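Tokens in:
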């Protein structure tokens, strides 16, 4: 079978290997789509921390059952599956507390262990959620949307609250539309006017603010001087992550979804005066995946506008760089396997 390996930074190779065998507790899946994510691009560019090469990338997968080695009514060949790509240890304190998303020994497919850029993948059965009621395209975007769903659940956003989402990339856009589903008022912020127009026209942001054009004045105006209950950083940009606190009301929540590779500095009197609740949000749990699947089933997410490209898997070898450009008009690129 075919697979694509990231051999070293900036070097992808198409290879072939034996198809995997059915092992105890594992299920063989046919990979149908792999969504391309910032994590994959960072690994390719060589700036993903804790990353070793060679590695098969890809953790946003739409799959079908190929073979199980056992009988299970929901896992018959051809059944469509959502795959939770986080292999937790089931033993550590966080796993035992139900926080499998931040397991101490977590292995993310495509990051710490080989991922989905291969025709067939073998995974533990417990990571699968049957999804015959979703299309393969919808299944492919469950994981990136679950990241946002987890951040929203952690922040306990309520329907009468105003939130700010900083960064209108694939994660930020997910938070925006899921927050609208919950009933929150959403202010979307970015430095790119094209992305801001998408956030408003296609994903329901109530207000858009260009972060380069006196954003605080704009936010004070649209919130009638109250600022925002919760701020979500989906930029991973140090300056944005340090500055966003200014947009939060006293008693508010500050949620870091994006990741920056280094220290962050906050002026303590400023965050203390606001009695800031600072939250980091990592990955997602099965509950978040199921919430996203419900939203997709109800057709309350604009899947058509979110998936901006569907390309054959070979395009990974030639076009990977262009998908990572900051001026790219793509939100989510799906590669077809
Ligand atoms: Zn991802
Ligand atoms: Zn664990």
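Residues out:
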């Amino acid at each position: 079978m075919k697979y694509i390996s990231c051999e070293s930074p900036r070097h992808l190779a198409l290879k072939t290997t034996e198809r995997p065998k059915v092992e105890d507790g594992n299920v063989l899946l046919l990979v149908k789509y792999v969504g391309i994510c910032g994590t994959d691009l960072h690994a390719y560019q060589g700036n993903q921390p804790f990353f070793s090469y060679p590695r098969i990338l890809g953790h946003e997968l739409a799959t079908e059952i190929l073979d199980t080695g056992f009988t299970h009514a929901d896992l018959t060949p051809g059944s469509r599956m959502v795959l939770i790509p986080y292999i937790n240890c089931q033993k550590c304190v966080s796993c035992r507390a139900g926080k499998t998303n931040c397991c101490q020994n977590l292995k993310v497919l495509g990051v710490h262990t080989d991922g989905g850029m291969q025709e067939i993948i073998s995974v533990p059965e417990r990571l699968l959620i049957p999804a015959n009621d979703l299309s393969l395209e919808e299944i492919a975007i469950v994981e990136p949307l679950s990241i946002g769903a987890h951040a929203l659940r952690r922040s306990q956003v309520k329907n009468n609250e105003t939130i700010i989402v900083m960064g209108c990339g694939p994660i930020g856009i997910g938070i925006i539309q899921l927050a609208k589903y919950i009933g929150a008022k959403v202010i979307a912020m970015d430095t790119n006017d094209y992305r801001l127009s998408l956030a408003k026209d296609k994903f329901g942001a109530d207000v858009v603010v260009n972060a380069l054009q006196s954003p605080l004045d704009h936010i004070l105006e649209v919130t009638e001087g109250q600022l925002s209950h919760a701020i979500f950083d989906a930029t991973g940009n140090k300056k944005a992550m340090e500055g966003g606190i200014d947009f939060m009301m006293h008693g508010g929540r500050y949620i870091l979804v994006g990741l920056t590779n280094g220290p962050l500095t906050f002026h303590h009197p400023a965050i203390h005066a606001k009695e800031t609740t600072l939250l980091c949000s990592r990955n997602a749990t099965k509950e978040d995946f199921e919430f996203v699947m419900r939203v997709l089933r109800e057709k309350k997410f604009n899947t058509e506008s979110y998936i901006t490209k569907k390309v054959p898997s070979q395009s990974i070898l030639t076009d990977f760089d262009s998908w990572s450009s900051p001026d790219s008009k793509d939100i989510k690129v799906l590669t077809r396997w």
